[in-house]
Amino acid sequence: MGKPSDLLQGTLEMLVLRTLENGPQHGWAIARRIQQTSGDVLQVQQGSLYPALHRLERMGAVTATWRPSETGRQARFYSLTPAGERRLEKERAQWRRLSAAVDLVIEGAKA
Amino acid sequence: MGKPSDLLQGTLEMLVLRTLENGPQHGWAIARRIQQTSGDVLQVQQGSLYPALHRLERMGAVTATWRPSETGRQARFYSLTPAGERRLEKERAQWRRLSAAVDLVIEGAKA
DNA sequence: TCCCATGCCTCGATTATCTACACATCTTTA
DNA sequence: TAAAGATGTGTAGATAATCGAGGCATGGGA
Predict the structure, then answer these.
(1) Chain B 12-51, CB below 8 Å of chain A: which residues?
(2) DSSP characters for B33-73?
(3) A38/B6 touch (CB, cutoff 8 Å), yes or no
(4) For B15-41, what is each residue's pLDDT tens digit?
């Protein structure tokens, strides 16, 4: 059960933005969804998630409103902004480029 | 020209160990080789490389000796130890697992 | 002579993440 | 009824890898 640290720094924001492409969600649901979608490989710590959400809000990539959740409790729902979508696209492209580059190095034939 | 930070933290050690699978090399050559092998996408900063090399040496994953380089100058050649090989295998497996998980999340179908 | 490539290294700052908490409500279980 | 667990948001302090910028030294070419 690897933590999104280890080598995934900076990737958390991308994961969060990507999850919000499916529509507005509150923090707890975002964390759960990432874990599920990744086949239980990635788990997002609350101490990383909320600061990341606040960063994204400060930079205008997401907006947030208080609304009752499915269970009737008050929860903070985050939505992607156009700026957030653009940011996601950039980070996604960056990820593809860099992870492909790492693969080239580590999977390449010896000698 | 992405920096191996951005999302590659912790990956540097793996890249270095992988490069040493091709035989002993000095720091400068390791950096150059990673850059070449990655198709000029990854570039290793000296301020990251040497601390990483020293960490790996302290933990016994590599050994180092001074020898003249191809150009005749004294250089510090690093070699993989058995412990380093084991570490590389673990990190390589970890990388595959986690990068595949990230791909699952970000490439998955919407909704 | 001056510059550039080679080659090693350190220092301070940045920054995201982690662990571990605190707080609140609602539901389930003993 | 009381305890426990799930839901849900958040902060505080510490950690640690990386970065940028610099220093130092040698050798070769212009």
Answers:
(1) 14-15, 18-19, 21-23, 34, 37-39, 41-42
(2) HHHHHTTT-----HHHHHHHHHHHHHTTSEEEEEEE-TTSS
(3) no
(4) 999 999 999 999 999 999 999 999 999
Question: Which tokens in the block code for residue A50?
Answer: 């909320």
A11-105 CATH, one of 3.40.50.2300, 3.90.180.10, 1.10.10.10, 1.10.730.10: 1.10.10.10
Minimal-distance CA residue of chain A relative to B38 = A101
Residue A9 confidence class, pLDDT cut points 50, 70, 90: low
Distance CA A94, CA B4 (A): 11
Which nucleotides in chain D lie closer than 7 A to a protein CB?
A: 7-13, 17-23, 26-28
Please give the CATH topology (third level) of the domain spanning B11-107.
Arc Repressor Mutant, subunit A (1.10.10)
